[in-house]
Amino acid sequence: MDFFDVVKRRASVRSFSPCEITDEELMQILDAGRRAPSGNNKQPWEFILIKDDALLKKLGEVQGCIAESSAAIGVVVDENMTRFWKEDASAAIENMLLAIEALGYVSLWVEGYVLNHEKMAKDVLGVPDDKRLLAILPVGKPATDPRQAEKKPLSELVHVNQYGQRLD
Description:
The chain is an alpha+beta fold and 168 residues long. The protein has a single domain, classed as NADH Oxidase, CATH 3.40.109. 39% of the residues lie in helices and 17% in strands. Strands 1, 2, 3, 4 and 5 form a five-stranded antiparallel sheet that branches. The longest helix is centred in the middle third of the chain and has 18 residues, at 85-102. It starts with a helix and ends in an 11-residue tail after the last helix.
């Protein structure tokens, strides 16, 4: 799928239908995450590939849709490695979200709910105390036809050369 089509199609999906995702496809998604840029190339992330149905169901306590997904990816970061750990992990997460879409699957960037239930989720996944579980990306096929949320037009967002100078 063309990159710009992927960007235009990617949507946050909160309802999944069961499907098979090959290990090869999951590795492609994880590889996209590891190839993200990071400050000083510190790469402060690790990923937990979650395929076990019992674990997915348990993580549904964090956000219900995780229990419906066919797989999920936990994004673990070492906040002591770099002060840019959030930015770095965000780049890895976005790469994976785009890869998921390019492969014909859907996902959701679950962060706020994860941070609100971080201790429980870390316990479920065995994440060490000195690491952060920043996000979980459920992966699967959509239960309904996904639509990207309405976006502001470029004319409201872009300034040319100086703030206040709008596109013609």
